[in-house]
Amino acid sequence: xxxxxxxxxxxxxxxxxxxxxxxxxxxxxxxxxxxxxxxxxxxxxxxxxxxxxxxxxxxxxxx
Length: 63
Description:
The chain has two helices and no strands. It is mainly alpha-helical and 63 residues long. Helix 1 crosses helix 2. The two termini are 28 Å apart. The relative contact order is 0.09.
C-alpha cells in the first residue's frame, strides 16, 4: 500500500511541476486545479515532515 501511495505522490508531483513550468515558459496562468493539487501536495509534505521530525526527536530523547 505504501508503494502505491509513493507512486501516486510522485506522479502528481511531476505533473504539477511540469504543467507549472510549461505555463511559466508560455507566460500563462496555471489552471485552478493545478494550483489546488500543488498546495495539497505542499501541505501534505510539510505536515509529514513535521510529524516525522517530531517522532525522530521523541525517539532520540527516549520517549
